[in-house]
């Protein structure tokens, strides 16, 4: 008798959220989750991580709105484009 391994597939929404081309704040999201895990889910201990994530989302949302208004497709820059944008700024805007 052979044993077969069942592969667990992430739902499409979860896969999309883990895609760096779709989610510009993946690192910030992971950092806040890790902080919560390490601090027994004490939200106060992780407020800096939450703020950084919130500012990241705000920044990239404004970029997306601007690109949409200018007719640029796709509205969200790819991971490579985002690295170029951040590099040109010289420092993290959030």
TrEMBL record:
Domain of life: Eukaryota
Mitochondrion keyword on record: yes
Mitochondrion among keywords: yes
GO terms (BP aspect): mitochondrial respiratory chain complex assembly
GO cellular component annotations of the record: mitochondrial intermembrane space
UniProt subcellular location: Mitochondrion intermembrane space
Record keywords: Disulfide bond, Mitochondrion
UniProt-listed PANTHER family: COILED-COIL-HELIX-COILED-COIL-HELIX DOMAIN-CONTAINING PROTEIN 7
Family to which this protein belongs: Belongs to the CHCHD7 family.
Name of the protein this chain belongs to: Coiled-coil-helix-coiled-coil-helix domain-containing protein 7
Source species of the chain: Myotis myotis
């Amino acid at each position: 008798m052979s044993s077969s391994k069942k592969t667990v597939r992430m739902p499409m929404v979860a896969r999309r959220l883990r895609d760096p081309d779709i989610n510009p704040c993946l690192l910030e999201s992971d950092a806040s989750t890790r902080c919560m895990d390490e601090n027994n889910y004490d939200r106060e201990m992780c407020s800096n991580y939450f703020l950084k994530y919130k500012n990241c989302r705000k920044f990239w949302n404004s970029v997306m709105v601007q690109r949409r208004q200018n007719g640029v497709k796709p509205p969200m820059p790819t991971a490579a484009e985002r690295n170029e944008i951040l590099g040109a700024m010289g420092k993290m805007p959030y």
